[in-house]
Amino acid sequence: MAADGGSTSLQLPCVFSPKSRQYLALCAQDGRLRIWNTDSKTLHQEYVPSAHLSATCSCISWGPCRTVKEGPQRKKRKSEVGQVEEKADLLAMGTAAGSVLIYSTAKGALHCTLDGGHSGGVNCVQWHPEDSLLYSGSDDTNIIEWDLQTGKTRSKWKADRAAVTSLCVSPDGKLLLSAGQTIKMWDLDTKEIYRKFTGHSTAVTTLRFATTRPPDSNGLYFLSGAAHDRLLSVWQVREDGKDKNSVVSFTLTDEPRYIDLVTSNSKEEAVRLAVVCKDGQLHLFEHFLNGPCKKPLSPLCSVQMSDTKDSPVPIPLLAGALTADTRTVLLAYGNHLQPVMEKVEINTAERHVCLTRDVQTSLSLSMETAVSKVKTPIVNAKSKVLVPGLPGHQAPVKGTSEGSEKRKKDVDTKEMSIAERLGEIDLSTVSSEKGAPKGTPSLQTDNFAVLLVQGLESNDASILNKVFQTRKEMVIKKTVARLPLPAVLPLVQEITKRLQGHPFTAVLMVRWLKAVLMHHTSYLASLPDLVTQLGVLYHMIESRVKMFHKLTKLHGKLYLLMTKVVTNDSSNTVTDVDHAAKLVYEDESSDEDEASGDEGLPDEDSDNWDEEEVMEEDKEEQADEEDPDNRTDSKANGEEDMEHENESEEE
User: Fold this and answer.
1) Rounded CA gap, 330 and 332, in Å?
2) How many CB atoms are closer than 10 A to CB 452?
3) 3-state secondary structure string across 480-531
4) Residues facing 285 on adjacent strands
5) Which residues on neighbouring strands pair with residue 136, listed in sequence order?
6) Residue 396 pLDDT greater than 60, yes or no
7) N or C: which end of the chain has fewer CB atoms below 10 A?
8) Which positions ≥6 away from 59 have C-beta within 8 Å?
């Protein structure tokens, strides 16, 4: 945030080196540290921390300039001894894992790692102006004083009830400002509170000393900026201790992201201030700090940047640094992956200045091999290196020689426009429907990734619809795998928005969400505001899962109803049969029955009748043989019947 201060974990750190402003250090979305040379406008060094995705860099701070020994040098004459140039060398990076990395630009490698001190993520790091000491503030509410010569903690103390979000050391190195819920000033010799200030309602993100005067002269001032606060407050450290409220405030258009100032050494010298806000504007202030000022001060000049298109789009400013010349400002603007650095002369007589620049949106990292000191990690043959590529590229960008560039110019390889790509998608779908031969043109997955990025950036519904309509699992997986990291969150938000729509689109979106969670879990887990980003998605899935149980019950009941309806219909169709009888039997007198029975008998041969009678007699004989008792019983019954008949006749 500040030129030699840290920044909060909610944004990407971007810091100019002190004094000469020769280097610009920033951490992009992929977790890599890149150091750009502001003079040659080229990438000077690039460093990939071992845990650049899980333990992302949350703050950066340049150490004080020092003399650097770069290899064997010739012996200097006595006249040259006093002209030794001091360069910015060491760079401190606080990580979300709680460790602090010290990187050396002279070596182009990691100088040392300070770990084991903090249990929470580091929010701010600050160097002591003279001694080889470093101060770090963390989410665990502690401040640690590190000794860089030994690489161990020198002292550690609890600073606040809440997380320590900002630190600043006074120019004389005797006082330390820390900010959590309140702003506290510490005496570095005794580590005791010197003064307390009421602070802001939100987390303080910036603390800077505005003057170099001693505190006992009522001339020591410092300024503070907070998240979601459009005012920069200036505080006076008074001798009598009545300094609870701010004395001056500067008005901004949005919360401050980067602050650079030229301190005043006396009452007659004004404080010059350059503030870059969250909305990408730069505000310049100039004020004589001499007691309280009731009205908030508006900026002397506001600077905005836009591109040269017919409908201009603002270009965000990343950082701004004041130079020795009061009219020139060093600006960094554009993208974090490839910022543009430029010294601009600004006419402060105008209140609002708009600069138009033609910034290429396509990323092409050109690196001078002779100048750059890019360190690539030494890897075994078995291990696999995961490199987040650029949009539309399958492999990391490599520097090409001039000869190969000339050959490429000769070959006519024009990049397709969005309209042509959309047309090609239509062609591929038509050909697949009609069963066209395999020779028809079809889009590759890397083109899908580029299309998806362009659709997310431009919010073009037609492009997004074309891409999201793909049902092939492999195409979805490869497209998501080739997405650049900055496009992951917008993709998740777009998926969340579409999941809330029609269930038919939600079925397709679930495949994309699954692929995103499979490929980019480590990146999503490293985001500090992950809960807020995925909160809507989580609640929506939870509500739908709750409804699922009720819906299954309803589905079961409806299924039972439908089966009953079907069975009723089938029973009705069975009753609708032909009621005409196929055989009619009429019951009349017994004689007719006998006659009709005789008539109705079929004419059969006498042989058959004889055979049947013989069969019946055989059966009776068998029965008699089997049951002789039955026969005697029947005889007895026959005799009794005869006796009854005789009696009745006699009567």
Assistant:
1) 7
2) 25
3) HHCCCHHHHHHHHHHHHHHHCCCHHHHHHHHHHHHHHHHHCHHHHHCCCCHH
4) 273
5) 125, 144
6) no
7) C
8) 6, 7, 8, 9, 13, 93, 94, 122, 123, 124, 125
What is the Rg, in whole angstroms, of the alpha carbon atoms belonging to the chain?
45
State mean pLDDT over 274-294: 90
- β-strand pairing of 352-356 with 301-306: parallel
Among 159-173, 175-189, 517-531, the least confident range: 517-531
H-helix or E-strand spanning residue 101: strand 100-104
Q: Is 465 helix (H, G, I), strand (E, B) or coil?
A: helix
Question: Which burial class, exposed, middle or buried, applies to 643 when counting CB atoms under 10 A from its CB (0-12, 13-18, 19+)?
Answer: exposed
Our measurement of the distance from residue 505's CA atom to the centroid of its chain's CA atoms, rounded to an integer in Å, reads 22
Q: What percent of the chain has pLDDT over 70?
A: 71
Cβ contact 199:216 at 8 Å: no
Spatial contact of 374 and 46, defined as CB atoms under 8 Å apart: yes
- Is it the case that residue 431 has pLDDT exceeding 50? no
* CB-based burial label for 14 (10 Å; 0-12, 13-18, 19+): buried
In this structure, what token pair is assigned to residue 621?
Answer: 């004989």
Residue 234's contacts (CB-CB under 8 Å, 6 or more residues apart) are 210, 221, 222, 223, 246, 247, 248, 249, 250, 289
From residue 253, alpha-carbon distances to 38, 293, 449 in Å are 27, 20, 36
Residues 6+ apart with CB under 8 A from 200: 224, 226, 229, 233
What would the pLDDT profile of 555-570 be if each residue is shown by its tens digit? 999 999 999 999 988 8
Kindly tell me if the per-residue pLDDT of 379 is higher than 90: no
Q: Is 467 exposed, middle or buried (0-12, 13-18, 19+ CB in 10 A)?
A: buried
Tokens (6 digits) for 515? 């692929």
Torsion 156-162-165-167 (CA) sign: negative
Q: Of 517, 432, 441, 429, whose CA–CA distance to 469 is shortest?
A: 429
Strands 256-262, 248-251: pairing is: unpaired
Residue 649 has pLDDT above 60, yes or no: no
Dist CA 178 CA 136 (whole Å): 10
Closest by CA to 58, choosing from 19, 99, 93, is: 93
* Token duo for residue 208: 């800077």
Degrees to nearest 5, angle at CA 401 with 400 and 407: 95
Read off the DSSP letter of residue 119: S
Average pLDDT over residues 23-42: 88
In the chain, % helix, strand, coil (3-state, to 5) comes to: 30, 25, 45
Q: Give all strands (DSSP E) within 238-361, no chain letters.
A: 248-251, 256-262, 271-277, 282-287, 301-306, 317-322, 328-334, 339-345, 352-356
Residue 292 has pLDDT above 50, yes or no: yes
Paired tokens of 571 = 């029973």
CB 199 within 8 A of CB 183: yes
pLDDT the model gives residue 639: 53
pLDDT at residue 610 in the model: 55
Query: In angstroms, rounded to a whole number, what is the distance separating the alpha carbons of residues 645 and 651?
Result: 10
Residue type, 248: V
Rounded Cα distance between 509 and 179, Å, is 44
| CA 144/CA 137 separation, integer angstroms | 7
Q: Over 90: is that where the pLDDT of 224 sits? A: yes
Mean pLDDT over 491-502 rounds to 85
